[in-house]
Amino acid sequence: MAPKRPKGAGAFPKAVESPAPARPDPDALYAALDLGTNSCRMLVAQPKGSGFHVVDSFSKSVQLGAGLERTGRLSRSSMARTIQALRICQQKLKRNKVKRMRLVATEACRRAKNSRDFIRQVKRETGLPLEIIQPEEEARLAVISCAPLVSTKTEQLLVVDIGGGSTELVWIDISSVPRRDRPAAIMRLHNGFHTADSPFPAAKVVDWISVPLGVATLRDQFHDVEDDSARFALMSWFFEENLADFAPYKDEQAREGFQIVGTSGTVTTVAASHLGLKRYDRTKVDGLRMTSDQIDKVIRGYLELGPLGRRRDPRIGDDRQALIMSGSAILQALLRCWPTDRLSVADRGLREGLLYAQMSADGVLEDGPF
Q1: Which end of the chain has fewer CB atoms < 10 Å from its terminal CB, N or C?
Q2: Checking DSSP bridges between strand 204-211 and strand 167-173, what pairing results, if any?
Q3: What is the CA 120 to chain-centroid distance, rounded?
Q4: Whole-model pTM?
Q5: If you average pLDDT over every residue of the chain, what do you get?
Q6: Residues 256 and 322 in one domain
C-alpha cells in the first residue's frame, strides 16, 4: 500500500518578503538647499526626535563663482551648469511633494553684479524660489547645525564654516549656561544672535565675522604663484591677516573649556585622509576630534604629494586638488590663532542648519539630548 501523501505536500512555499518602507508623509517633510560659490547641495528630511531623518539628498560641484573674482559677474556657462543642477533638485522636491522648504544662495550671489537676474532666471526655468541670505544668517545657520557636537564641558566655542566664497567664524560664550543645556542653548540661536529676551539661559555671541575668502576665492587670489609650497604659505598668511579685527583673536584666551568646530568639505577631507579611508564614511568622520599635530601631518602629506599626487588621491581627486590646499591654508591659520590643540569635525553645515531652524520654528523637534 502506497504511503499517504503528507498534507500540503507540493504546495508552493509561502514567500517571506520584507515590507516595502512606507513613503514618508509629504506634510512631515522639509527641504533645505544651499547654493554656494562651488557647490549646489540639498537635503529632504523629516523630523525624528530632537533631530531629523534624511529622505533624499543631492550634491554637485557647479562652480557658480568661476571667474567671479576677475569679472564681478556670474558667467553664462556657470549659470547654465547651476540651473541644470537645480532642475534635478526641483524634480526631487516634486517627487517627494515637499511643501516646507528654504532654498538659499550665499557668497557668489551676494557679490555678483548680475545675481538678481540669475535668481529671476532660476525662478523662470525651474520654479524654485531661491533667496540670497546675508552673512550673519549664514553664520547663524552653520552654528546651529553643529549644536549636537558641542561638548557639555565647553565654555567658549568657535564655529568655523569654510565655504567656497567666504568663511564664517562665530565665537560663543556658553559659560553661564548649565552644562546639560549647552547644546540646546546653541540651537536656540536660530532666532538670532541677540537673545537678551530669552527666558532660557542664553548662549552669548561674543563676536562673529564673515571673511570674503573661501576655498575658491582664496585659490583665485594666488593662482599666479607657480610654486605649490609658496602659494600655500602665502594663502595661509593672507587669510590670517583678514582675521585681525575679530575681537577674540586680539586677547589671550584660556585653553581650558575651549572647543573649535570646523564644518566644510576641507575639514571632512582632511579627516578622511587622517583616517586613511578608501571610501568616504560620514559615520566615521562626523564628530571626530583631531589634534593639531594630526591635521599638520595630513597637510604636510598633501604638500609632499604635489598637484599630480593630489589628483590621484581618491579622497581628493581632480576637481578638489587645488581647493583642498586653499582650504588647508585657512585651517592651518585658524589653528595658529587660537588656544587649542584639537578640532571637532562636522560633516554638516548650512543645509542642516536650515532644516533645524525650520523644524525648531514649527515646534516639531522634541526637547532632550541630541
Answers
A1: N
A2: antiparallel
A3: 26
A4: 0.82
A5: 87
A6: yes
